[in-house]
Predict the 3D structure of the following.
Amino acid sequence: MISTTLGVLEKESEVYYFLGGQPCFQHKKNDIKAFYYFICTQIELKVIKSIQVVEGLGINKSYLSQQLKTFREKGREAFFQTQIKVTKCQKFDPEMIEKVQKKLDGGQSNHSIALQESLTEGAIRYHIKHGRLKKNTYLSNRSHPL
């Protein structure tokens, strides 16, 4: 029991919640988002208090507060929307690609370009690998007299 009105039962890989003895919600045992969605909903509806959840289920109080804040600001979607993070290389804009490509065409090494342009050598290699930059194969493959 989380409170006098809300109970919880774990059976096999499912978690069942009972409100006044009647089943009201269920989710997979490892579905943390569904768990926090349900708990936040019940706190918002004043069925339970957050302290009852903290004490009854051993949940971290600050993390529960964080989830409540998310629920209040973004609603149900915050728990069930798949978030796709789209990142963009901040330093490699089209202008920088062109600048680095000219230096590569001139036979400059990845290392020296990285130092001059405040980039990482790995970033230059990444863009070469993905076809945004082309290494001058004639200059890099020629044999050195030694």
Remarks:
- The first strand starts at residue 6 and ends at 11.
- Residues 39 and 58 are 13 Å apart (CA to CA).
- Residues 6-80 form one domain.
